[in-house]
């Protein structure tokens, strides 16, 4: 089994490797100025940030800005949480093999870093307007940390657990925090739940989804309904995670639960285009021939497939999804040599070549 398959199997068997780190606010270690930049797109590469304007159906390079103190520190592409003028994410491993929390300022493009504990595995974060909430999973407990938006810790709530328990995603709605939970029992049974907590992380309700067909790993909230990806089901003959091709929906107001079948298996990360009422679903590509997304309309139940067959070689070298952002009615996907624009209205793609700019390992895509 190759390393990527090992990583995938660990993820979908819901096993967790926890890294214990000392909490430490590392401050601003990036561009180090207070200038506000005007751009449509900003791309973070290993040692620089490039800003672009989209004009006359072309990308115009505006500036190349050196990254001074944190070269080769990339970002975890599928975890970019936008909040007001910031993106929250985590980094790739640094030279000490630590991953860091990161807050990216969309205006001046500076990055604040924070070193905390246990951000491998079933880790999630969510801002709520005033605070940033972070979850960690350990063998015997869950920890929920609350920070202000400058990474100053406010409090930690510890919840003992009897079974392997994994907070796969958190979503804030009103004064509640909804947490997608996977519980692995000793007999191999898997329970999928939504925990309803207040912002002190007191548990108020457990919604048992009564769904044991496979792992439910990510969710998005559209109106009063959660849409949750069922990523895998069972094992293949090769003892790899078996394919699932469903979404599970749960309505908070009515308690109604449904399943939605998709054409493509292994749905994982999910996003919501509120303007068009679309779900954008990224399918884990290790067992697929290319990067694949489904655009699912909540209006009429229709689906469109976005795939990138030209990037087979890139996919083998870069197993995680390409950076993705919604911007001015279109969807954008960043590859090493191109920015791909997709129109959900026409189902057409347009490619903007980035070869002439010679970027090294672009891992962050911002839109303003």
What topology does this entry show?
Blueprint: H1 3-12, E1 24-28, E2 41-44, E3 48-55, E4 58-66, E5 81-83, E6 86-90, E7 101-105, E8 111-115, E9 124-127, E10 131-137, E11 141-148, E12 153-160, E13 164-173, E14 176-184, E15 190-198, E16 203-208, E17 215-222, E18 225-235, E19 241-251, E20 257-261, E21 267-273, E22 278-283, E23 292-297, E24 303-307, H2 312-317, E25 324-327, E26 330-334, E27 338-343, E28 348-353, E29 364-367
Antiparallel strand pairs: 1-8, 2-3, 2-29, 3-4, 5-6, 6-7, 7-8, 9-10, 10-11, 11-12, 13-14, 14-15, 15-16, 17-18, 18-19, 19-20, 21-22, 22-23, 23-24, 25-26, 26-27, 27-28
Short description, anyone?
By secondary structure, this protein is mainly beta.
Task: Describe it.
The protein is mainly β and 368 residues long. It is globular and about 55 Å long. Helix content is 4%, strand content 51%. The strands form seven sheets. The chain has a five-stranded antiparallel β-sheet, with no helix packed on it. A four-stranded antiparallel β-sheet has the order 4-3-2-29, with no helix packed on it. Strands 9-10-11-12 form a four-stranded antiparallel β-sheet, with no helix packed on it. It contains two helices and 29 strands.
């Amino acid at each position: 089994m190759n390393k990527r398959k090992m990583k995938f199997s660990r993820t979908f068997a819901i096993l967790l490797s926890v890294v214990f780190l000392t909490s430490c606010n590392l401050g601003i270690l990036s561009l180090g100025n207070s200038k506000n930049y005007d751009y449509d797109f900003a791309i973070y590469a290993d040692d620089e940030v490039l800003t672009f304007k989209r004009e006359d159906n072309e990308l115009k390079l505006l500036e190349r800005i050196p990254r001074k103190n944190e070269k080769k520190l990339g970002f975890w592409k599928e975890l970019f949480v936008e909040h007001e003028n910031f993106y929250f994410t985590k980094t790739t491993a640094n030279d000490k093999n630590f991953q860091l929390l990161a807050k990216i300022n969309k205006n001046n493009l500076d990055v604040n870093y924070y070193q905390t504990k246990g951000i491998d595995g079933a880790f999630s974060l969510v801002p709520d307007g005033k605070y940033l909430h972070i979850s960690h999973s350990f063998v015997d407990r869950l920890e929920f940390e609350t920070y202000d938006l400058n990474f100053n810790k406010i409090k930690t709530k510890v919840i003992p657990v009897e079974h392997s328990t994994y907070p796969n995603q958190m979503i804030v709605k009103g004064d509640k925090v909804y947490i997608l939970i996977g519980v692995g029992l000793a007999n191999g049974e898997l329970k999928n739940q939504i925990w309803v907590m207040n912002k002190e992380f007191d548990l108020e309700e457990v919604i048992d989804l009564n769904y044991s067909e496979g792992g439910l790993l990510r969710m998005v909230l559209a109106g009063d309904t959660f849409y949750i990806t069922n990523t895998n089901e069972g094992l293949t003959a090769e003892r790899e995670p078996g394919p699932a091709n469903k979404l599970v929906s749960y309505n908070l107001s009515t308690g109604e639960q449904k399943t939605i079948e998709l054409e493509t298996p292994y749905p994982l990360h999910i996003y919501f285009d509120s303007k068009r009422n679309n779900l954008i679903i990224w399918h884990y590509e290790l067992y697929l021939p290319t990067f694949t997304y489904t655009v699912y309309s909540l209006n009429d139940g229709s689906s469109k497939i976005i795939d990138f067959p030209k990037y087979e070689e890139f996919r083998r070298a870069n197993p995680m999804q390409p950076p993705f952002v919604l911007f001015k009615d279109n969807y954008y996907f960043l590859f090493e040599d191109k920015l791909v624009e997709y129109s959900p209205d026409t189902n057409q793609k347009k490619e903007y070549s980035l070869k002439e700019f010679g970027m090294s390992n672009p891992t962050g895509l911002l839109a303003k």
